[in-house]
Amino acid sequence: MTTQKKNASAKTAPKNRPSNISHARKAAFNILLAIERGQSHSDDLLRGKAVNALSAPDRNLATALVLGVLRWQIQLDCQVQALLKRPNAKQEPAVLIALRLGAFQLLHMDRIPARAAIDESVELAKQAGHRFASAMVNAVLRKLAKSQQTSEKPVAFQPTNQDPSLTPVHPAFEAHPTWMVERWTGFYGLEAARAICLHGQSQPVLSVRLGSPAVEAELTQAGIVLESGELLTAARTVAAGDVTATEAFREGRIRLQDEGSQLVAEIAGQGTANSPRQNEKTILDACAAPGGKTLILAERNPQARIVACESSAPRLEQLQKRLAFLGGRVECRQADATMLAEDSSFELVLADVPCSGTGTLGRNPEIRHRLRLEDLTRQAERQRAILSAALRAVRPGGRVVYSTCSLEPEENEQVVAAVLAATPNARAVPLEAKIDQLLRKEILTPQGAQRLRASLTPEGTLRLLPGLFHTDGFFICMIEKTA
Q: Which of 100, 36, 116 lies closest to 68, judged by CA?
C-alpha cells in the first residue's frame, strides 16, 4: 500500500477505532497511574515484568517518561491548570496522567513530535474510559504546544512563600514543594538549595562497586566505559554502555550502588578494625535490606559474624537470596530494629535507618509529592527508637554508625542529640580520624578525603548534599558506647 493510500485510509477510518499507542507510552501511563493511586513506587514498577518485556528503546523511553513526569509534575500541573476553563476542578487520575504525559513531552522532550505527544495522550484518556474528557486533553495540549511555538507562554508557577529572599529563581525550584525549598535555603543557603533542586531534576550518576581489577578489564572489553569514583577507590561511574547486560552483573561480580551508600558502609566497616576480639567479632546491620551495605561490611570484616535484620518478610527473602553465597557468616533475621533483644552483644552496629529519603529525589522523584512536613516527626520517633536500641545492643567500647539518606535535621542532628541526651554512657565520635584512616588504607581517594573533610559539620558528623556531591544525600554520625 502506498503512503498516499495509507493516509487516505487513516482519514476515512471510523472515529471510534482506537489508534495505536506506543508500548512505551502505555507502560509509562500505567506506572504513573499506579503511583498516583498510591499502589506502588516508581523504582519497583520500572523494574517490573511489564517494563522488562519492552524492547530496549521502549524501556528507555518509558523510564524517561515516568521519571520526567514525576520530576516536573508540580510545574506541569501549574502550566496545565492555567489553560483549563475550570482550573480548580478536580480531574480524574487517568485524565490527569494523560495531561501530564503530553505536557512533559511538549515542554521537555524536543525529539518527540508534538503531534505524537498530543494524539497518544488523547488516546490514553479515551482508552482509560474518559472519552468526553479526551476532548479537553486535546484542547489543552494543543494550546500548550502553540504557546511553545509563539511568544505566548503559560502562566508561570507562583510560589506561596512570603519572604522575597526565598523566592525560587530557577525552574528546578518550581519542581519542588515550596516548603522543601524554603527549608533547604534556610538550612544550607541559596546556592546549596539550588544545587539540591538541580540534582533532583537530573538522572543520578550510575555507580558500581567492583570486586577486582580483572572485572573492570572485563567490562571494558564488553564496551562499558567506566570512570573513577568521586570518593572511593573501589567505586566506578558508568559513562557509557549497559552494565546490566554484562555477564559480570548477572553473576553478581559487580553491583549497582550509589557511592554515598558505599561510603556509609566503608565508614562502618572500618569501625572494628582495632577490636581485641578479632576472631569473635560480631556486627549487626539493624536495617539491612537490600543488602548492599551488608556486603561491604562482610568484605571489610572477613572473620566477623554478621547479623542482618529486616522487618519486612518479602524484603528479608530478597536479602537472604542476595547474601546466600556468604554462607553461615551472615545470619538474616526478621526483626524490628526498634525492639532488638540483644544487650551489649556487638562490637559494631550499623543503623542505616528508614527515613523520608529527601536526599534521593533524583532517584525517587515521587517522594516530593507524597511527603508532608508532619511526616518528619513520625519518622524521627522511629529513628530515635532504632538508635536507642542499637546503643543497647553494642558492647562498651563498641560503636554505632547512624545514617540516613535525608536532608532534614529532624531526622539527623536532632535524632542524635535527643538519644545522646537520654544515654549518658554514649558519646559522638568526630569522623575526621575515620576519614584519615580510610585514606591511609587507600579506600578513599585523596580528592575524596579532602572534599569529605570540608563537608564535616562542627560536631564532626558528615553531610553529603546532592548536587555538591555526585551522590544521593546522606547524613553519617558515629557514636561510641563508653560503659
A: 100
The x, y and z cell numbers of residue 256, run together, are 549497582
Answer yes or no: do 251 and 119 share one domain.
Answer: no
SS3 content of the chain, % helix, strand, coil (to 5): 50, 15, 35
Give one word for 460, left, alpha or beta, with left for phi > 0 and alpha for psi -120 to 50: left
| Residue 218 burial (10 A CB sphere; 0-12, 13-18, 19+) | middle
Distance CA 37, CA 39 (A): 6
Smallest CA-to-CA distance from 355 within 409, 307, 318 is with 409
Same domain, 310 and 354: yes
Q: What total of structural domains would you count in the chain?
A: 4
Q: What is the mean pLDDT of residues 284-302?
A: 94
- Cα four-point dihedral sign 417, 420, 422, 424: negative
Task: For residues 462 and 480, give the distance between their C-alpha atoms in angstroms, rounded to a whole number.
Answer: 16
Indicate whether 320 and 352 sit together in one domain.
Answer: yes
Contact 55, 48 (CB under 8 A): no
Name the H helices within 38-130: 42-45, 49-52, 56-81, 93-108, 114-127
Could you tell me whether strands 394-404 and 474-481 are parallel, antiparallel, or unpaired per DSSP bridges?
antiparallel
Indicate the residue type of 98: A
In a domain, 397, yes or no: yes
Residues 6+ apart with CB under 8 A from 418: 384
Model confidence pLDDT, tens digit, residues 58-102: 999 999 999 999 999 999 999 998 888 887 778 899 999 999 999
CA angle 377, 379, 382 (to 5 degrees): 110
User: Any idea which residue has 566503608 for its cell?
Assistant: 266
Q: Which helix H or strand E contains 450, and what residues bound it? A: helix 446-454
CATH number of the CATH domain containing 389:
3.40.50.150
133/112 same-domain check: yes
Prediction pTM value: 0.88
168-212: per-residue pLDDT in tens?
A: 456 788 899 999 999 999 999 999 999 999 999 998 889 999 877
Residue 476 three-state SS = strand
Domain span holding position 53? 19-149
